[in-house]
Design a protein that fits this description.
globular, 165 residues
């Protein structure tokens, strides 16, 4: 049974993630203050559980893996496309997610998040083709990655903490 403080932290976190998704969909930006709040809530969550779910090492490795892998993808993508292929807000978001999920589940969040992003992108491209009667050129297509990653974070979080909730 989940204690009251961790439950409130989870509810607040879902609210922060929802707001981040909406902002990213509208502006293609993930505000640093909200990403930092997400990270802080992750630390508070694990402290409220007395470190029973994740230790500091797993949290740190998760942050390095989540942020580091996306930074690598961003660097390669920027070189290939000669333009920003992935925002730094997405890198910071996945580093913060690593604090929540640890090294064992951050890759699950990335995989589910990437899949959700692909589905979202294909749906938007199909909608553009149907409504505008033209095909969207993939390399010119811009899509906020945050909402897809947030879906992945929530799925991985549910898997990770299903016994705690």
């Amino acid at each position: 049974m989940l204690a009251f403080a961790p439950f409130l932290i989870l509810i607040a976190t879902l609210g922060v993630l929802a707001v981040l998704s909406i902002i990213d969909l509208r502006t293609l930006l993930l505000p640093n203050k909200l990403v930092a709040a997400f990270a802080g809530l992750g630390i508070a969550f694990h402290l409220s559980l007395y470190g029973l779910e994740l230790n500091w090492l797993s949290m740190g490795l998760g942050a390095l893996m989540g942020g580091g892998l996306l930074l690598l993808i961003r660097t390669v993508g920027n070189y290939f496309y000669q333009d920003d292929s992935l925002g730094l807000g997405d890198v910071k978001l996945m580093a913060a997610a690593g604090l929540w999920l640890g090294d064992d589940m951050i890759l699950v969040a990335l995989v589910f998040g990437a899949f959700a992003g692909v589905v979202h992108g294909l749906a938007l491209m199909a909608h553009a083709k149907i409504t505008a009667q033209k095909t969207q050129i993939f390399k010119d297509f811009s899509l906020p990655a945050g909402p897809g990653f947030i879906i992945g974070i929530v799925i991985a979080g549910f898997i990770k903490f299903k016994d705690v909730i």
